[in-house]
Amino acid sequence: MPADRPVNPAVVLARAGNEPQIEIVEEAVERPGPDEVEVQLVAADVSPLDRQIAAGRMPVAAAPPLRLGTTAVARVVPSAAGGALDGALVYVLGELTGMGITRPGTFAERFTVRRDQVVALPGGLDPRRAAAGSAGGLAARLALFDTAALTPDETVLVLGGTGAVGRAAVTVAAAHGARVIAAARTPSAIPQAGPAVTPIGLANLAGDVLELTGGAGADVIIDCVGGPVLSAAMRAGAFRCRHVVLGYTAGMVTEIVIGALMAKEHRLMGFNLMTVAGERQRAVLADVLADLADGRFEPTIGAVYDLSDAPTAFARAGATVGRTLLTR
Prior knowledge:
With 328 residues, this protein is of the alpha/beta class. It contains eight helices and 16 strands. Residues 17-326 form the Enoyl reductase (ER) domain.
């Protein structure tokens, strides 16, 4: 451990599983290279991806011990050489380099990142709101426009309309001029984004969507749920529906009727943020941060814990309504 480097607490996954062993350890901060900056954590979201990694359900994740954390809002530590970002609040695009997945993550008091991984927050934006809403907003915009190529005259079915990605997808798609059908176990918790949004439950998913669309089905499906809900949603798709899968909170395995897939030419597509070019991520993130700063999208913060309470945060996050944050 370098003697001249700060030592600070970090959240490390010691053992993955249904009851993961998460520990607070002392680590030395890496010395920044020429294209890197040192940052100090302000707030970070304990995302579903972080929890899936901790549970051992992310096949590409590095084996423990692994410092967790795929995103964060942090403040750039001033350097001796000086720089335009010194002292600035920034959002850290951790997945861009596999942080918290294949290499040490963002859940530490201080850590080092590449300069191209950070985007400055707009003035006045609450860093906790940025931490709670940015990852979901980024994934939603990329899935809607880059992967699904949504147009304003289309119908979008959002599965998991109460989660961070789902809430963002509902709001962004409605603002784009699309008709939105938002499905969740608790439809009353789906954000009210105007008359273009219709909330429904999951019990009669295909029947409800087909009834609402006059039998035509949804042109685009944003699927944050997976499992058996994915199969039901396929029956709700229009001909050549673009079905983008971003998560699997209902399970990683489901049964697909191949004949139905072929008959409708249903286009089932996976979404992986790690494959999106950094330049594109930064451009879209700027739009997301502007939405948050202007109040066009409002994330829900369910619980806030100090970094030292990370084991408790992970244990309770799945049962918390809204985003769970770690702060310093």
